[in-house]
Amino acid sequence: MVNSAPFPPLEVVILAAGKGTRMYSSTPKVLHAIAGQPLLGHVIAGARELGAKAIHVVIGYEGEKVQQAFSGQALNWALQQEQLGTGHAVAQALPQVDDDSMVLVLYGDVPLIRAETLRALTRRCTPDTLALLTVMSSDPTGLGRILRSPEEKVVAIVEEKDATPEQRQIRETNSGILVAPAKRLREWLGALTPQNAQGEYYLTDIIAMAATAGCAVNSVVVEDELEVLGVNNKLQLAQLERHYQARRARELLLTGVTLRDPARVDIRGQVECGRDVEIDVNVIFEGNVELEDNVSIGPNVIIRNSRIGSGTQVLANSLIEDADVQSQCSIGPYARLRPGTQLADGAKVGNFVEIKKAVIGKGSKVNHLSYIGDATVGEHVNIGAGTITCNYDGVNKFQTVIADGAFIGSNTALVAPVSIGKNATVGAGSTINQDVEAEDLSVARGRQRNIKGWKRPTKK
Ligand code: UD1
Ligand code: CA
What we know:
Bound molecules: uridine-diphosphate-N-acetylglucosamine, calcium ion
Number of helices: 7
Oligomer: single chain
Distance between the termini: 86 Å
CATH architecture of the largest domain: Alpha-Beta Complex
Largest sheet: 11 strands, parallel
Mean pLDDT: 97
Strand content: 25-35%
CATH class of the largest domain: Alpha Beta
Number of domains: 2
Structural class: alpha/beta
């Protein structure tokens, strides 16, 4: 995405001082997550896409927690000590805003607003006009109503609590999002009074001031109501999560990805897909995930910050985290790839196998019930069922190295540090604590003894 700096310069003010009483939570409202990212994070990301010169966030309730959650980001913080209304909130940020900027007001709890919509809105603001985002609400209860003149010009916003019964019939409502020239905004905010039903300084009152001063209010009507829906409770949070996920699923479908059920995939980050990728139901992607051509993902799979190479199959109920998987591999069902796993072309990791910080070479197989950690496994190695790398002595971690072509019999304990040479064979049930040289066979288990005609004890 190219960030084209708008002209005149754009500054964004995000209101995030509210408590969110109806969330019944000790977490500030804007830190509740959609797709694993705080609501406010979504809004900030949208603002960044616009190429804003500065982003100001107005905080109040648990403001420190909010700041902490975004520490290290280029943001200006403004504190609103008391929540005296949306107009008062914007006024707290204005001292840091340049006179010749356009100010875009956003809400920390309105997460699904799209940069595209905001771009269209900012284009409607000039040094002498104001741009307002409105919406036709299926249920306008509680929202500010848009009052228009007979010529259809926006002349004022009236809050529900201050509205007459006739005004309450109006379905066009205020999204709260607007763009105004900083200089004028400063004047208007300075003139606000709390003479209204809620005793608050309403940002919405600037609309009538602008209209009266001959400053046209250009409106953009957003089509998707949920795009401007604010989160006030967990029900709305859940609705917006689903709406967001539906959007993401739709994007994948339209780029050619097969989703067995678009309602049963969750994307909490970025997913990049090649051609002919197939994704079964109940799959979760987190962080940055890359699926190359012809990858297929089975049901109930979770993939986090990983690349899956072309033609690889991930079978049901597998969990893959910080792993790099090359082409034509097979993973699962029920496999767990932990951070630092690397699978080379054609490697197979089967059911109930856990891999951690280990490289599995080309065509090598770890098919059943094994733990391979802190290990380097060469090419075409066969690791039998129930093999464990004993990598930890309770204090330190040690490496296991298995060279190309080795064969590890089932139920083997490899006590690290240890290495198994090229084409070496380890007999099943061995506990290996000394290196095995190339081409050798090592058997380290109690020798079998058969006792002829032995009688079991009988009851007296
Ligand atoms: C506001 C609008 C209303 C609009 C609605 C859309 C006003 C007066 N009314 O209603 O026209 O239809 O949004 O959802 O603007 N906030 C602060 N400090 C404050 C007050 C609010 O930071 O002192 C923040 C809140 O955290 C929230 C946002 O501003 O994120 C909106 O506040 P809220 O009380 O939800 O808005 P309403 O008054 O319901
Ligand atoms: Ca309010």
